[in-house]
Write a structure and sequence with these properties.
The structure is a single chain. This protein has about 250 residues and is an alpha/beta fold. It has one domain (about 1-245): 3-Layer(aba) Sandwich (Rossmann fold). It has helices spanning about 20-30, 40-50, 65-80, 105-130, 150-170, 190-200, 200-210, 220-230; strands spanning about 10-15, 35-40, 55-60, 85-90, 135-140, 175-185, 240-245. The longest helix has 28 residues, at about 105-130. The protein starts with 9 loop residues before the first strand and ends in an 8-residue tail after the last strand.
């Protein structure tokens, strides 16, 4: 359908070399976009580009470093002449009880997950505006809805990201920039597969709590990315959309 066609569009995906970011990048490429995979692990990025095909390229990026963000966005715009889509996916987590976290650990999580998303959005804004409008997709988490004892910093960062999403949506609506957040639930990735090996009963608990009766897949991730990056979502902005098979809807 034409509403979902991304031919000629350029997307910048942070943390796009694996997991959910890779799935979103794959969906955008399939819909016709050219995708810049922005991440710190160059070898992993090279592997991702090989899987994504000729419409993908890579750039080094540390989202917590202002100069790195500005340089990476500028390189993408210089190479392709425009920027239409930004996906803020890069993130970290340090699992500790809140009373055991060091200030430096707290700041690492907040600087990467929240400040990094703002830095990327701020750097991308002029190019998105110059293109006549664009899309920003922030990757949140179920941790922005539920509390958990070992992810205080992560939850705070993802809750803040939802509010940043709403603020940017309002601020940049006159520039025809739509800003939305996706809140992934339990998605089948390399990280979650490792978690299932390490945490006894995790798979059974997730399946029991999820009305859809399964884990999410990268195909599910592709679909929401293409929708929010395409003209199909031009009247959707400031939303935080769970991608969780109903997990957050069930008591």
């Amino acid at each position: 359908m034409q509403h979902f066609d991304l031919t000629g569009k350029v997307a910048f995906v942070t943390g796009g070399n694996g997991g959910i970011g890779f799935g979103m990048a794959r969906g955008l490429v399939a819909a016709g976009a050219r995708v810049v995979v922005a991440a710190r692990n160059a070898d992993k990025s090279a592997s991702a580009i090989g899987a994504l095909g000729p419409n993908a390229s890579a750039v080094d990026l540390d989202v917590a470093d202002e100069a790195s963000v500005n340089t990476a966005i500028a390189r993408a715009v210089d190479r392709f002449g425009r920027l239409d889509i930004l996906i803020n996916n890069a993130g970290v987590n340090i699992r500790k009880p809140p009373e055991a976290m060091a200030l430096a650990e707290w700041q690492t999580v907040l600087n990467t997950n929240l400040t990094g998303a703002w830095l990327c959005a701020r750097a991308a804004h002029p190019a998105l505006k110059a293109a006549g409008g664009g899309k920003i997709i922030n990757i949140g988490s179920m941790a922005s809805i539920f509390g958990a004892p070992f992810v205080a910093a992560y939850s705070a960062s993802k809750g803040g990201l939802v509010q940043l999403t709403r603020s940017l949506a309002v601020a940049w609506a006159p520039d025809n920039i739509q800003v939305n957040a996706v809140l992934p639930g339990w998605i089948d990735t390399e990280l979650s597969r490792n978690a299932r090996k390490q945490v006894a009963g995790l798979n059974e608990r997730v399946l029991a709590r999820t009305p859809a009766g399964r884990w999410g897949t990268l195909d599910d991730v592709e679909g929401i990315a293409v929708f929010l990056a395409s003209p199909a979502s031009d009247f959707v902005t400031g939303a935080a959309i769970p991608l969780d098979g109903g997990y957050s809807s069930q008591l």
